[in-house]
Amino acid sequence: MRTVYLLMLLVLAISALACWGKERAAYTLLQVGQHMFEGEREEVSVGQIGAGLRRGVSRHERRVTPLMKKKVAARYGWRCACGCGEQLSFDYHVDHILPLWKGGSNNEENLQPLNPPHHLSKTSLENQRA
Fold this sequence. Notes:
Helix content is 46%, strand content 6%. By secondary structure, it is mainly alpha-helical. The chain has a two-stranded antiparallel ribbon with strand order 1-2. The longest helix has 18 residues, at 2-19.
């Protein structure tokens, strides 16, 4: 029950920050929240997800190495790929063009560099459409 209250508080704080125009702070809090709740995932048996998959491992694992991240950023000229043309910030993210949960891959061709606020916006739009 404590986890539910923490999650509700986290969502409320992120929403408030986003409404106040503090997208970077909202995104940072979102990242912290993801790490806080990583251990809270429900275990899934092999029978539930099909033979060959390890117990409790998501089918949509992100596997982007630091080298891949740099290669993707260099391919885009160290500019944000959202179309704004801004130079990438020091804390830029690598986004999956086609999300993993929609069948996308971790191949470099499916990755693009985005500044954190733009990545937050894109992910938010994708989640609304889901």
